[in-house]
UniProtKB/TrEMBL annotation:
It comes from Tunturiibacter empetritectus. This is DUF1761 domain-containing protein. The chain crosses the membrane at residues 6-33, 53-71, 77-95, 107-125. Keywords: Membrane, Transmembrane, Transmembrane helix. It comes from the Bacteria.
């Protein structure tokens, strides 16, 4: 029961941090560098790659925070896998953003999710 509560707290914190930081970075980038973001009402490829990198960093921070909550006593690797599943589930079910990014960047962001959450957990649990 307690492990389940820690798991839910860790996934919620990791998700909120990842998505919140990603949104903040997106707003900051689009406000300060509008020409990098879009040209002729189309999102530029450079911005898409920048977003992939931002997502990698945000998922690492979210994974680290989730690992902080779980520690080594409350199934940390199950928590990491659960956070990955939740983040990728939301990523793939958001069809509007998926159309904006394209399938290639969607797959790249999925790989960034796995790499980022894993890196965050490894940094915390080493």
């Amino acid at each position: 029961m307690i492990t389940g509560a820690f798991l839910l707290l860790a996934i919620s914190l990791g998700y909120l941090l990842t998505v919140g930081l990603s949104m903040a970075a997106t707003f900051a980038i689009t406000t300060s560098l509008p020409d990098l973001v879009a040209r002729d009402y189309r999102i530029t490829p450079r911005y898409k790659f920048l977003q992939d990198g931002v997502w990698l960093v945000c998922t690492a921070i979210g994974g680290y925070a989730a690992a902080l909550v779980l520690g080594t006593d409350h199934s940390p690797w199950i928590g990491g896998m659960a956070l990955m599943v939740v983040l990728m589930g939301v990523l793939w079910t958001n069809t509007w953003e998926m159309r904006q990014r394209g399938v290639g960047h969607q797959m790249l962001m999925s790989l960034a999710t796995v790499a980022g959450v894993t890196a965050g957990f490894f940094l915390r649990l080493r």
